[in-house]
Amino acid sequence: MSDYNAQDPAVLDDSPKPDTTIPMVIYALHLAGIVTGGLTSLVGVVMAYVYRGQGPHWLDEHYRYQIRTFWMGLVYFAVSGLLTFILIGFLTWLLAVIWLVIRCVKGFKGLQEERQPDNVDTWLV
Q1: Quick one: which of 29, 57, 71, 94 has the fewest CB in 10 Å?
Q2: How many structural domains compose the chain?
Q3: 23-43: pLDDT as tens digits
């Protein structure tokens, strides 16, 4: 009788799983930026710049995604602030918040599945 588990590649894989705690914290900081006026998002993007390049490719793509999310969000919220003077800014601000939430949820999901986020280079979701 042979030991089947000894032949299973999943059992033989002794490589440590990359720690996804920091990227999860960064996504949470981006989301908290909605109520802190972006201050926590600023902390998150600094963390993403510091930690990028220190993990597997799929994890580095999350850091790139988080950095892009910060800079694109900055543009979207700045434009919304300017458009507030003609009253459409409130609507564009709401759309920017929805955009941010969707990107962060997609990022969380990708981390849980240990894969890079979809459409890292897009300005949409």
Answers
A1: 57
A2: 1
A3: 999 999 999 999 999 999 999
